[in-house]
Structure prediction request, 289 residues.
Amino acid sequence: MVVALAVVASSWRASAQPAASPAEEHRDGAIGSDPAESPGFVAIDRFDATSRVGLDIMYLGPHNDIFTDRAIPFRITAHARYVDPASGLGGYVRMPFAFMSTTDSPTITDFGDLELGGIFAPKLGVPGLGMVLHAGVTLPTGESGENESTLGLAEGLLALPDFYNSLPRATTIKLGASPMIRMGAMFARIDLGLDLNDDAKNRTIGNGIHYNAGIGVDLGQAAVMLESENLSVLDKHVANGVYRGGTLNALALSTRFNAGTYFSLLIPFDDNTTKFFGIAITAGAEIRM
Prediction:
């Protein structure tokens, strides 16, 4: 239905408005425009060729058999990136913050690991195809208290691209590549990433492999997206010679408006996550620079 509405809307705009110049067609996302400048996704990787600064807040619906009654957990992420339009080179910074308030215990907060990195969005010269590469490192700024680190890791189960940013006092190298496609109003991307956690204090958490996918429809003043975020934690020595790995999966329905606001409803599907949370709702805003 969404696709049908998009086609009707596009046809109406084409017949009701005069022909656009090549620059306007590129800006509006016609075939041949750079997909690295398409409307950004919300749940999966957001690295693209645009420069933005923003803040989002995620509410997590906890299961009361794990958390105390009336627990209200939130996850806040501050983020910024700059990409030079000519060279496609840029940098980014991200910082997560976890928060949980309850009626029967003190409020728990957890600052995560600050992430710094670089972005490269090369011009492929192929209409409708794009690519974004990124490489970063998390600095060991995360809190190491038992309650704080547990909260950060639990909430990271529903923010899988930033899961390793919640490890206590950890240093993680984060690498990723995202091929993209744009065909008229339709846009999509695939994220392939590797998180290398080489911190001796966190040996129970192995390295991670990300494989995300998203598809969306640009309706003009807003875009709607379906997103799949996935993380496989590779086996790592835990205790008594036992090795353990795990896979985390979630699906999100998201909306992004041209005004800079965005919303997402995320539902986890793996057993490791669903015993903690039922859903996650994200709301945020960005300013395009």
Summary: Residues 1-32, 238-243 have pLDDT under 50 and may be disordered.
